[in-house]
Amino acid sequence: KAGVTQTPRYLIKTRGQQVTLSCSPISGHRSVSWYQQTPGQGLQFLFEYFSETQRNKGNFPGRFSGRQFSNSRSEMNVSTLELGDSALYLCASTLDRGDYGYTFGSGTRLTVV
Amino acid sequence: GENVEQHPSTLSVQEGDSAVIKCTYSDSASNYFPWYKQELGKGPQLIIDIRSNVGEKKDQRIAVTLNKTAKHFSLHITETQPEDSAVYFCAASIGSSASKIIFGSGTRLSIRP
To answer: Is the Cβ of A25 closer than 8 Å to some Cβ of chain B?
Structure first.
């Protein structure tokens, strides 16, 4: 079966712009979580969505937002991009809320110049 | 606050030898402890996990141990092979739900031929 699909794989944006990243979970998986991965900070939790509702949120500024659609696909948006937002953004899905064992996508590499 | 510490940050072992990576966590309510392997250009992949009601779990050459009293858990890889070279992350669930997982800072494991 198809894994977690993230698009695009690579993205270059300019400071001040905004960006939208997409994540399609494994078919049947209803919970989607997002992480930011940087060399200095490691894997940082951004948020979790289930049934089109944000259930958990990490310690990121309001410039980071997301949503989930009725088919469980999720998007995250970063507005007013800063150089420090350059990172690998990872999406992970699980079957249900409280289910264990994330399956991660390959990520979107965002570079802000 | 919520924290997972991981040591060492880098580890080099001779092919065929064993590798051990150690983690500690801070949240007493954590009850799920997964380990992930991340290869270059890919997202993290779940390799083994353990729940708080179990002290040890094995899967072929990989084993994980958990000491809930001390809030320690460890990954043991025996008979290491070149394909074991990767970055390994420990993680712990936060609170009583597995819907939020926080990660350690990672261990870069290199297997010397």
So the answer is: no
Residue in this structure with the two tokens 């060399």, named with its chain if needed: A39
Query: At residue A107, what is the residue type?
Result: G
3-state secondary structure of A113: coil
* Chain B residue at shortest CA distance from A40: B105
Specify the pairing of strand A108-112 against strand A87-94: antiparallel
In order along its 113 residues, chain B shows pLDDT tens digits of 789 999 999 999 999 999 999 999 998 888 899 999 999 989 999 999 999 888 999 999 999 999 999 999 999 999 999 999 999 999 998 876 656 889 999 999 999 99
Query: Measured between CB atoms, does B106 come within 8 Å of chain A?
Result: yes
Q: Are B100 and B93 in contact (CB under 8 A)?
A: yes
- A101 contacts chain B (CB < 8 A): yes
Determine the distance in angstroms separating the CA of B105 from the nearest CA of chain A, rounded to an integer: 5
Strand partners, A20: A77
